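#lab-general

N.A. 3:47 PM
ok so I finally got the sequence cleaned up, no stray characters, all 69 residues accounted for. can someone with queue access submit it? mine expired

B.Y. 3:52 PM
send it over

N.A. 3:53 PM
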Amino acid sequence: GDWYLAIAAYNCGEERLRRGIIEGGTRDYWTLVDYKIIPKETSQYVPKMIAAIILAKNPSIFNLDHSFE
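B.Y. 4:20 PM
back already:
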């Protein structure tokens, strides 16, 4: 039910994330990042994915409208 956790699980693996949730006692992605419970790569991957989604949904705001004709 949490997109941040879903993206994190895709990157570090469902089992690794499950262990982190148990270790941290929380299902809050940002708390897991703050306490360095999830891998550094994953803590960097999720914000990059969020940024890519924002760019893809709003290309004109970021001057990314290009014609491929």
